[in-house]
Amino acid sequence: MNCKTEATTASQLLSPQNVRDLFDSVDAFLFDCDGVIWKGDKLIDGVPQTLEMLRSKGKKLMFVTNNSTKSRRQYAKKFHSLGIAVSEDEIFSSSFAAAMFLKVNDFPREKKVYVIGEDGILEELELAGFTGLGGTEDGKKTAQLKPDTLFEHDKSVGAVVVGLDQYINYYKLQYGTLCIRENPGCLFIATNRDAVGHMTELQEWPGAGCMVAAIRGSTQKEPIVVGKPSTFLMDFLLQKFHITTSKMCMVGDRLDTDILFGQSAGCRTLLVLSGVTTQSTLQDPSNHVCPEYYTSKVSDILEFLGP
Amino acid sequence: MNCKTEATTASQLLSPQNVRDLFDSVDAFLFDCDGVIWKGDKLIDGVPQTLEMLRSKGKKLMFVTNNSTKSRRQYAKKFHSLGIAVSEDEIFSSSFAAAMFLKVNDFPREKKVYVIGEDGILEELELAGFTGLGGTEDGKKTAQLKPDTLFEHDKSVGAVVVGLDQYINYYKLQYGTLCIRENPGCLFIATNRDAVGHMTELQEWPGAGCMVAAIRGSTQKEPIVVGKPSTFLMDFLLQKFHITTSKMCMVGDRLDTDILFGQSAGCRTLLVLSGVTTQSTLQDPSNHVCPEYYTSKVSDILEFLGP
């Protein structure tokens, strides 16, 4: 299989000729955020105008992000600060997904959740009625290998949620490892496994995949992944928007998360080259994830449709 | 295969009846350290007397440890502080292995080595004539995701060595990731991949396998492993001691590192249950690494041989 040459699987370059067919057959556009809407705190050119046009034509918009550092509320705030009106319930973040996973699986309220990650996860846990601990607060703690000191952990932790954590340290790694190895039945939940991401405009940084791999390395357990490419969040999108997945188009910059998520859920797919994936990665023979369409950036939709 | 039941692969419990056969056919005993000689900073019962007896009977002793936090010099010092006379050249640590790997592969002297790990690696690199950076010093640095700041890294880094690092942080993860992803031909060397280890007497802690997995997660590259179970160090042991491997017995507490290392090198093998492996793990049907002998602790050799 090859996204460049095989007629049956080839990805089409989006163009003024084929954009109308995609546009007319889709009722909702699902956007990834990092590398699609923005890079770090900077909007990608033409995004606001494109989203505005899509809304004006009656398309539903949803934002599905693997970045777990923010809650839905914090994402809505970020959109507003960038001049884009998006409501909380149009946002589906992996921090929300982690909390919803516990909720739909009847995670006992009396159990606690240890977080290797940032505030977004803790806020979503609290909103869902769960008790989180760890997170940013434990970023200041140290765990040194001193003789005769026992590293204590809370035996009532029933789940460890691991996401992107710029305050990762040995204390948290030991805490999470002890919970998973020693608390009977303790769940190991990964918000996502992105290797790297455009956390800042200028470069890529280790993503949640780095922290998740660390805990997988120390516990030798496989995580439950709730973010993309897992389609766990799709049930929530469908409940909210009542649109069949074949009428949705997933727009993202990552093959192994966004495009795989869209394809697994039965959505149309559009890869944008404004984030982590280059055209040569897409067309490399080793790549087996072929989006239906690809283009340089989101605003090409606006440009190709014309006035 | 099963270490308990299959006659051809079954591991024998060491006993007064079979210890003599092993003892007489072996000229050198190779010991792992953590979980075999000591736990954290505490000697395991009977170790000094057993080592003394082995030496008095003309057996050569070597210590092969995956713990990279110390150099050979620092290990010799630790042995001495615990009342055991061991010379530097009887010690083969994964910190030494990392430096020797670069040496035998003619790593250019003008290139630098970034270290995610502790002082032992930096000291061995320096002794071998290489320039290391990172390590403990970078444990105090922070890398926060601020817009418009570019995280700079040294383009002359040609290898990243990853070992156990109790000062792991996002700064080091980003630094190592950038070197491996952006410096052409940059090597990714793992001292070892132990999931956990008895870094303190009272409990296990995440091992180098945790940090190595993190960098594997962010770079999506496979490391070159120089510690056990890789037999890379065996050439150095053979050069030093001129003993055929079939006359050596590897004594260790880990199936996936010590026993696999011994078996891969053609050594006799003895598992001790004083460290990470329990008898039920050894005899679990999912375990496929069966040592020739197993016993509770090193001093059983002394006890079973009798006066």
Automatic annotation (TrEMBL), chains A, B:
> Where does it primarily localize?
plastid
Q: Which GO terms describe its cellular component?
A: chloroplast
Name the residues annotated as catalytic in the UniProt entry: 32 (nucleophile), 34 (proton donor)
Q: Does the keyword Acetylation apply?
A: yes
Instruction: Tell me yes or no: is Kinase among this UniProt entry's keywords.
Output: no
- For this protein, what reaction is catalysed? 2-phosphoglycolate + H2O = glycolate + phosphate
- The residues that the entry says bind Mg(2+) are 32, 34, 253
Q: Give me the residues that bind substrate, please.
A: 228
Cofactor(s), by name: Mg(2+)
SUPFAM superfamilies (alphabetical): HAD-like
The cofactor remark states: Divalent metal ions. Mg(2+) is the most effective.
| Segments traversing the membrane | none
Give EC number(s), comma-separated.
3.1.3.18
What GO molecular function annotations does the UniProt record carry, in alphabetical order?
metal ion binding; phosphoglycolate phosphatase activity
- Biological process (GO) annotations? photorespiration
Return the Pfam families for the record.
Answer: Hydrolase_6 (PF13344), Hydrolase_like (PF13242)
Q: Which UniProt keywords apply?
A: Acetylation, Chloroplast, Hydrolase, Magnesium, Metal-binding, Phosphoprotein, Photorespiration, Plastid, Transit peptide
Subcellular location as annotated:
Plastid, Chloroplast
Q: Which family does it belong to?
A: Belongs to the HAD-like hydrolase superfamily. CbbY/CbbZ/Gph/YieH family.
Q: Which NCBIfam families match?
A: HAD-SF-IIA, PGP_euk
Role noted for this protein? Photorespiratory enzyme that dephosphorylates the 2-phosphoglycolate produced by the RuBisCO oxygenation reaction.
Question: What name is this protein filed under?
Answer: Phosphoglycolate phosphatase
